[in-house]
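Example record

One chain of 623 residues, shown exactly as stored in the release files.
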Amino acid sequence: MPRSHLPVLALLAALALVVFALTRVAVAPADASRPLGAARAASAPAEGGPQEELAAARALGGGAAGARAGARSLLAGGVVDRVTGGPVALAGVALESQGRALAAARSDAQGRVVLECVPCTGCDLRVEPPAGWWLVEAPQQPTEEHWSGRAALRIVLAPDDAAPLSVRVIDTRTREPVPRFVLRVRPERGAWETVRSGADGRAVTETFLRAGALELRPEPEAEGAWMGSQHFEHRPDAGRAAEATLSIAIGPTYRLDMERPPGIGLEHLGAFLVPDDRLELSPAFWNDPARIRPGEPREWVRFDAPIGPTEGATLFVRSHGGGWATSARVAVTSGIDPAPVAVRLERMGSVAGNVQSAEGQGVSGARVHLIPAGVASQAFDRAAISGARGRFLIRGVAPGDYLLSAVHERHGATQVPVLVTGGEAFDRPLELSPYRIGGDVTGVVQSASGTFDGRTVVRLTPIQTADEVVLERRAIVEWDDGGTGRFEFRAVPAGRYRLVPRVSWSPHLCAPAALEVAPPALGLRILVEDREIAPTLRFDPLDAATRRWIPGAHLRVVGGEGGLVFDGPLEEWDGNRRFAPAVELRWTLSAPGYVPARGDRSHFVSEDGWPWQVATVPLRRAD
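Predicted structure tokens for this chain:
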């Protein structure tokens, strides 16, 4: 062979070696120096030569995908931090099939990761988070979108000390879960997030929160939240969300088994709750209904706060125009009623008419009251003021028997029975009969210290009168600079009355507490004892470390001779109960997870200008 052919032969031999080496290369990890299970083993050449390797690629790729000449493709994507949205480096990502690793790589400093492999269907993607991180979200298998490059792999990790917060909302009284309760959650120096509890009473934040102190607060629309802000120490553990139990004294909550006519939606309805001991009072509540909310499977309604101890109450549901209404008795007056309340809306009636004087002239400004028959009370449940020419109208009246009365201070009063039927209007004139006047009732209220000028009201309630309908009157005391106030009632109908003075928003007492008078009664004298006050006592339990208020505390109070004064939840402590300074008391305050604290009257401190004393009680954590 001529020597001139040797360089050509050498070049052909070198090219043959390169081609042979390329056909023997197996799919290898992008960074085989870092172990990812069986990924290192996958980097070795497959036995049997190029033909066997192509057959394996066809088997893994389901035939058609692998048959595309066994070409390798790039799977590209990124690894991000769920908390900050930034990149996460050194996250291991591997592609496996039937336990065999096909390719592996780790994310770089920008969170990018690239896998080079023959496309396959049914291959699993495995993620190995770096130390201190946990996997939040990743595709289980690459899709055609990923293989074609039209979509990037998105892998989401979170630090071990970050996780959503799960809040379990329960009713303090019944310990039952509170569904559909709206809360706001905020970490220190963070933004508020609004969450709503589900049917099981659990609410979970969308935000991943780092370990630390969190503040929980009811959303303003969450009526019935008898609580202020509460604080919780968030301590997630490697992806396990911390759970907070929020115990709240929920307002009365009822599930409604409701029947309503077509066209009457929930947005047209309102609900009212009236305790038994207030059924006969004039209902200012008619002007402030609670919203009825949709739910599954029943509608529901929640009121602002527990209405206090009572044997029961009446739940009223009515349309805003008053044309439809109903009522139902309920026994539960705080927390969630476990039994649904059956309510069936009925068509209401109306009562209208003209108020006239004895001379037949229309009387404007007369008070018109509609009293259910058989109610022995001087207070009324429906009322109106006559307008021009004495005209009045009362809508939304339930069918039944009533007494309709009209009263005017100058023109007198009258009362007639009426029968109201659903969907119909009762309309008739009311002629007033003049009062038989007994005279005036006047008096003086004196401050014992000579300095008191707080709001003081005097009520004049009829006991027995010559006229059939006489209303209770009220007068506000007008004070001068010397601590002397005056009140007067002019042209009081003849009869006997009970006069009761009361100082509002203050523990001061009046002497006498009540008087029985018959007009004319002039120059009555009442003393306001404001020189020495028996203060009310309050407790403020605080975390000794964070100085934050502790919910769910329990209080036990014992008198000087060992008699039990109170033993129950702190929120049920009667803040209006007064104890003279000479009364000895011993108390124990405890809370779940804290060491109980004990004390006596010496722990209470007066607040200037307020009729109470406060004991600020720091509690240490039990752990």
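Notes: The chain has four helices and 48 strands.
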